[in-house]
Write a structure and sequence with these properties.
The chain is mainly beta and about 160 residues long. The protein contains one helix and ten strands. Helices cover about 15% and strands about 45% of the residues. A hairpin with a 3-residue loop joins strand 6 and strand 7. The chain is extended. Keywords: Signal.
């Protein structure tokens, strides 16, 4: 019986290690409360191209998120961040410097759909802020999609 339990433990450990080794290029989503200096990792990509995160935002929340990658010598070309809510237009989203991130092709009034390109090698990771209209609590889904990676720098 001990041998069977030991074997199950070894197989489980190998499976977990293999799962973590599949993380490509360290693409992750981090979150912080506005005013805080602490970024908390909330989602990781297993393929380096997509990740999804779901949360509930309260009426007075003002949150910031950032997309990180471990390999700064690569540019994440054609990266899209889509934030959707069950109830449309209850949250606003702004990328870096508070530039609105509303898509002209998204007529649902959802809370942001915007492409981002990393402009230079080792460039600071872009962040985006999400604020409510102080009237509703809402379920939110974040989807980050990278269509391409380009190797530009040799650090």
């Amino acid at each position: 019986m001990k041998l069977v339990l030991s074997l199950i433990l070894v197989i489980s450990t190998i499976f977990v290690v293999l799962q973590f080794s599949n993380v490509v290029n360290g693409l992750s989503l981090k979150r912080r409360e506005v005013g805080s200096d602490d970024w908390i990792n909330v989602a990781d990509s297993m393929d380096g191209l997509t990740l999804t995160y779901k949360t509930i935002a309260n009426k007075l929340d003002f949150l910031q998120f950032r997309v990180d990658r471990d390999d700064e010598s690569r540019i994440l070309n054609d990266m899209y961040i889509n934030v959707t809510s069950i109830k449309a237009a209850r949250f606003g989203i702004f990328f870096n410097n508070f530039i609105p991130a509303n898509s002209t092709t998204d007529n649902r009034g959802r809370a942001g759909y915007c492409p981002i390109w990393f402009a230079s090698c080792g460039a600071e990771t872009p962040y985006f802020s999400l604020y409510s209209n102080n009237s509703y609590t809402s379920d939110l889904t974040f989807t980050v999609t990278v269509r391409d990676e380009i190797k530009l720098c040799d650090f």
